[in-house]
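$ fold --in a.seq
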Amino acid sequence: MPGVVLYVDMDDIDDLFVASLMTNDVKTVTPETLVEMAADLMLDHEIGSVVVVDDDGTLRGILTRTDFVAIVSGQKPKDQTPVSEYMTTDVQTASAGDSIREVADRMVEAGIHHMPVVDDDEAIGMITTSDLTAYLSTVQTPSP
């Protein structure tokens, strides 16, 4: 996965800049793009958002997976399709005792952002890339 660092030496975290981690291949749409076309673009490229720009490239907004949840929820008439038609059944899971580094590596390799935490096939929690980001932002290196 281009632009992704799997292991970060916490001593070097202050010397790590956005440019070294960011994705350069940003997918864009215009404000007039139909949501169906934007969804197809996101699925085709396995991405979680598209940037909305004017014809001259000026940033106008962002459309994310979360926005699509709101779109489906707000549909009139309501869609009567059961979740089973769309859900992922080959679910990557973690155990409560798994290391954060191992789980983060697995999430990056699988290109996923949510991983249920299970105990004997029973969901007991959820670990997300937001959880990992929040943790990384608070990690302090020990003083010598």
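$ fold --in b.seq
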Amino acid sequence: MPAAFSSLPAMAAERFDVLVEDGVTIAAYELREGSANTPVLIWGHANGFGAGSYLPFLQRLATRFRVFAYDARGQGGSSIPPAPYTTTIRFDRFARDLEAVVYRVQARAPKAPLYYGGHSFSAAAMFHLGGNFGFAPWRAVTTFDATLRPSDRDDLKQISKARSTPLAEMTLRRRRYFDTPAAYAAAMARPKAFGYFAPEMLEALCQATLRPRRDGGEGYELSCPPEIEAATYNSVAATTAPYEGLRDFPVPAHLIAADPADPKSNWIAEVQSDVARHLPDARVTTMTGAGHLMPFERPGECAEIVLAMLAKAPPP
């Protein structure tokens, strides 16, 4: 069997594992850069990407934060939950996994103020944890296109559900195996894939999302199996609970929305203003000319937005 895979390399981050529900092991990481005397930031990744895909971005954040990140269940270096995925890959589980990671982080940095930054479905899980489960230890949060399915707008409610299912079906047809990392990098660099990413982010993505095959065969495989990625997409379509709990989310939130007019954007960008209206203390910034994967397109600008939380957060 190949050695355990981590989406963040050991030279860049220290790994620690967190045992959660369903017997799943969550791979969590602390960046080696930065100071132990700074506020803590926990970062959540988008579906299929893993924490390591954001390494250059996270290193920018480490100039002023003590940065932690983790791989969602079934993705990156975390273990795959048991079937049925309709039970073990859903927002309740994502939320509780984050809670378990937070407790471990607090044990490592017991006196540090805590902040959150996250992208896509992980950001939605964070809102679910705070709004519906009452666990929000953050001083402030910043999210990028948090993927919450609306319950009070029939147009977007139907669009979001209709598009999630075809996306999951398309994901199941993704190529799973590659002969070499170079072949994978070439596929990811195509214009219709991720060729528009900042070069350092594309390189990090390729390193974080490909691992040696675990079945003993020659070559490499995706570190997030297509069936896990598809089940995660389906979890968005399956519930509006994270959205419905927003009114009880107690922490200041800055929502970064993709540009709805950008061809790389989707219905999620349109939801962000609705999310903000439901939150007690929130504001929205639209990143003009950027799509849903904006931290990969414009990592420097996105990092500055996250770092700005330190100046705007209320006193403890």
